[in-house]
Amino acid sequence: MSKVIAMAGKGGVGKTTVSALVARHFAKNSKNPLLAVDADPNSNLGETLGLEIEKTVGDIREDFMKDPQGVPSGMDKVLYLEMLMNQVLIEQQAFDLLVMGRQEGQGCYCMVNNILNRFSDELEKNYAYLLVDNEAGMEHLSRRTSGKVDILVMVSDYALRGLRAVGRINSMLDDLKLEVRNKGLVVNRAPETLSPRFLEEVEKIGVPILCTIPDDNNLLEFDMEQRSLLDLPDDSDAVKAVDGMMARVKEMIG
Ligand SMILES: Nc1ncnc2c1ncn2[C@@H]1O[C@H](COP(=O)(O)OP(=O)(O)OP(=O)(O)O)[C@@H](O)[C@H]1O
Ligand SMILES: [Mg+2]
Hints:
254 residues, Rossmann fold, alpha/beta, 43% helix, globular, two-stranded parallel sheet, 8-stranded mixed β-sheet, binds adenosine-5'-triphosphate
């Protein structure tokens, strides 16, 4: 079964950035196949990685629901949906990317969802690692059928509010049908030394710090120039921090 690395944290704290840097880490340092899943309905992981997204899993679901009879004659609808899913999968040399897109609207989507979920489960088996960039809520994770996360990377900015959001997510985990095997905190846009007050709050939440990431001007520049974070230099501060984090993560989850 693939090892699942999932992101959580409040809006705008850097989940997608950290996800992109984890994908970069796999692309540069690992021979293990990675499937990156963009589970944010306002998907932008692909963009961050310099990829153009034409269609999402959500689009397939919508198209199918709009015209359930649109299955080519003689074709089984399961096979048809699977074929469409294969078209959504973006295959890269270094990793593959699946963009979930919007969640369903009104109507009963159970049948389509079942087929799409089963396909995702099968697909995941082809990869040693699965990386899930989540939206600020935990919607996607709570829907996962396999229900296991090897490490939940909780991202916070250097602010008590970000940290408290992590605290809330942490205490919510027990209510989800989700087996979270390891948890770690990433403090993004952090100064060199964390204040005692901040550390005290971290202690209270009880999630170990995996790494701190300083403000990195390269990220700003790459964002402005719409360049892929895969092309960040190896000695970029954020890259070094996430590479270091991944060494620890791999020790934790194998
Ligand atoms: N360490 C950093 N240094 C400089 N800029 C950063 C850093 N981390 C993130 N940013 C910038 O902050 C912005 C928000 O980051 P990002 O999109 O990764 O957050 P997010 O948690 O995924 O947001 P959302 O909840 O909207 O999905 C981006 O423009 C990103 O380039
Ligand atoms: Mg994001």
